[in-house]
Amino acid sequence: MRFSLNTTIVKPDSNEEVKYAIILLHGYGGDGKDISMLTLNWKRFLKNTIFLCPDAHEVCSINPTGFQWFDLNSEDPEYILQESKKAENILNKYIIEVSDHFNLKYSRICISGFSQGCMMLTSEKQFNCIVGFSGKIIDKQDLSSRIKNKTNILMIHGENDPIVPPSNLLEAEDFLIRNKIKIETLIIKNCDHHIPIEASSAALNFIKKKLIS
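Predicted structure:
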């Protein structure tokens, strides 16, 4: 089982057929093992589900033990958009590999990401659902010209996040509603830039309702 991105894979129990897949995207400077910690609880409630946690394609410029979906050394919005779209193309290829390998339609695949990984959740494909933690929309004007699907979305953010301020969730919610995309949001009190148990549990309940129903 080899893919174009190095992947931490959490398989269902030995005798369970793979009927669903959840792809988890780490944040800036992290890796697939970091984000795979979410599966420790999720796996018990999501039977027949395989979890795939890829490392991003670039070594992180400020943390050589981790990875990045796109470089953040420049604050130029055009550069960031360009680099994020390059990463999106790489990620789309990876998702096709996953879909083909497990013979799964996109309607049986959930995509989730934290921070920079959340910012990568812009595929034009129609997935079962999308869950974003502590992220934002990189460029609303660019995305508005590319929206082709109405995947249900849950976005979760900490109210005290100093890295990606929670105002980004409110802006994303407004943008998605204007584009007639169903979105649910949750702001976690007394939470900064991480995924607490409350956020993980809310995401799990959303995925259970959408993916296995």
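Summary: The mean pLDDT is 95.
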